[in-house]
Amino acid sequence: MEAEPPLYPVAGAAGPQGAEDRLGVPDGPEAPLDELVGAYPNYNEEEEERRYYRRKRLGVLKNVLAASAGGMLTYGVYLGLLQMQLILHYDETYREVKYGNMGLPDIDSKMLMGINVTPIAALLYTPVLIRFFGTKWMMFLAVGIYALFVSTNYWERYYTLVPSAVALGMAIVPLWASMGNYITRMAQKYYEYSHYKEQDEQGPQQRPPRGSHAPYLLVFQAIFYSFFHLSFACAQLPMIYFLNHYLYDLNHTLYNVQNCGTNSQGILLGFNKTVLRTLPRSRNLIVVESVLMAVAFLAMLLVLGLCGAAYRPTEEIDLRSVGWGNIFQLPFKHVRDFRLRHLVPFFIYSGFEVLFACTGLALGYGVCSVGLERLAYLLVAYSLGASASSALGLLGLWLPRPVPLVAGAGLHLLLTLSLFFWAPKPRTLQHIWILYAVAVLWGVGSALNKTGISTLLGILYEDKERQDFIFTIYHWWQAVAIFTVYLGSSLPMKAKLTVLLVTLVASAASYLWMEQKLRRGVVPRQPRIPRPQHKVRGYRYLEEDNSDESDAEGERGGCGGGGRGDCAEEEAPPAGLRPGPEPAGLYRRPCPYEQAQGGDGPEEQ
Question: Going by C-beta distance under 8 Å and a sequence separation of 6 or more, which residues neighbour residue 505?
């Protein structure tokens, strides 16, 4: 009886093709071991390394796009909801029908106070929070607080709106400081992944040449601010597709308005107290707020799922290990650096000009003359002009460094001087094209301002140990400027323009003075960053005590808190075998009984 053929070919058995496979390697027991377990014969190490770093560079681009889109959606939802909320609450009929005598104007004033006043204290806690949570998780947490603010508008009461506004005010500076730090770190990582061969030749401890990441930083900041300025257009979508259908036209809302533009005072003096023709249904409001909530949640997912870490785990440990007291003090110590002192006027002007575009230009010149129903289109023009012009920041690749920043300041200077002498008439549409042109040009200046300052900070301060401090100082001064605008909202338009003009001239002059000092070779005085306070043992970062020991090891080492008999289980080595002083930590620690007796354990006997 013949044996059945095996279901699978037996190793070493000669098949129909003989004892060798397609590659000519002998099969079976006589096959060489290196051919079986060795490297793939066609493996190209250089090609695989190139592909690896190409994937790393694509990951950096993904991080930049995800962070930019997350910031755009977050800020767009916040601005859109706040704008729609303030317009609805301004209408007398809406307040009386929906909320009765609940005191909605008082709630709105306290809510705006929470948003504008709370960031003044941000310099005290922002660096600590960024170092504690890490850059990526600080971004995620801050975006989540913005989403919390959106969610509280489902139930508009004092105990929901005001606390969420205070929490939002606390998150403003940490969010944008961590965003600026994140984009700068991505540019540095992209340089490392693009020049990995040079890094291998120089060694892991050698830092790249100063300014080497600047071209990538210019590109990434242009991408980020293109997305960021689109948030102003995204914020107008609820206005355009929902609220505009309920608004009165300009003949009703502007009936008592007498002066606009440079002759106006405060915010829309004489504006009609009723702006809604019909009240929106509560169901429609819930639908709009649900869409905004979904977009805020999408921004959280973008930051959580698509943004990679800004630092390696060991770098995160190093950044935290300089000591929390030092982390708290370092933002204040950076005031010694003359570069930061010279840039402070530009930081303040950066906050002034954004608020002027949204309030002074859009309300004092736009709504005051062409009506509330065209507010959204004015801000869309500003947004698109700023977003498209963010690419002008790339001129820094070919032109001297001061040119884009000074060009934006010069454009704003011309526009501010023009607005000084322009007072459009209320309820006239003949000059609406001028308003759109001014809005677009102001957006061009804003784009050059924002991209120029952020790129300049990333170039001047390349050390990863101090970037979060620098961006915290920048955005804190912006918050101080926004708080100042909030306090002076009732001033005449001429006073606002004067403050804007003086700050602009002072910031440009101070910046050019700083560049002149750097060309003369004046060395800035930077505070020393303390060394990390940990000990390196192998691949772990440990303190004096072994933080990795288990409970059982701790009980054996500390004698479990027992008596002297418990501690005598481990005998000390004979005196003859101890030629000199023994190193600290080689033997066990004294148990509590020995500590109470003042001894150091059996080794002392």
Answer: 413
Beta-carbon count within 10 A of 603 CB: 17
Q: Mark out the alpha helices in 307-431 (DSSP H runs).
A: 313-320, 324-333, 338-355, 368-370, 375-389, 402-420
The 10 Å CB-count burial string (b at 16+, else e) for 352-366 is bbbbbbbbbbbbbbb
pLDDT (0 to 100) of residue 47 = 85
What pLDDT does residue 396 have?
A: 84
- What pLDDT, on the 0 to 100 scale, is given for residue 22? 53
Distance CA 122, CA 44 (A): 52
CA distance readout (Å), 126 to 168, 207, 348, 482? 13, 27, 18, 18
DSSP H helical ranges for 45-195: 45-90, 92-99, 104-117, 122-133, 135-151, 158-194
Give the Cα separation of 329 and 24 in Å (integer): 70
129, with CB counted inside 10 A (0-12, 13-18, 19+), is: buried
Distance CA 493, CA 567 (A): 82
Q: C-alpha dihedral over 441, 443, 445, 449, to 10 degrees?
A: 180
Give per-residue pLDDT as tens, 28-84: 566 566 555 666 667 778 888 889 999 999 999 999 999 999 999 999 999 999 999
Question: Position 78: which residue type?
Answer: Y
Encoded amino acid at 147, one letter = A
Q: Which two tokens stand for residue 255?
A: 């009936």
Residue 325 φ/ψ region, left for φ over 0, alpha for ψ in the -120 to 50 degree band, beta for the rest: alpha
**pLDDT tens-place string over residues 281-305:** 989 999 999 999 999 999 999 999 9
209's tokens: 């040449």
- Residue 20, phi then psi, degrees to nearest 5: -125, 150
Would you mind telling me the total number of residues written for the chain in this entry?
605
Q: Which residues contact 602 (CB under 8 A, 6 or more apart)?
A: 567, 568, 570, 571, 572
Q: Cβ(448)–Cβ(388) under 8 Å? A: no
Nearest CA-CA partner of 455 in 397, 386, 519, 388: 397
**Cα distance between residue 219 and residue 90, in whole Å:** 42
Which residue is it, tokens 């929390």?
324
- Gyration radius from the chain CA atoms: 33
Task: Label residues 501-534 b or e (16+ Cβ within 10 Å = b).
Answer: bebbeebbeebeebbeebeeeeebeebebeebee
Query: What pLDDT does residue 215 have?
Result: 92
Q: Which residue has the higher pLDDT, 239 or 582?
A: 239
Least confident range of 277-291, 438-452, 570-584: 570-584
Sequence-distant (≥ 6) Cβ neighbours of residue 155 within 8 angstroms:
none
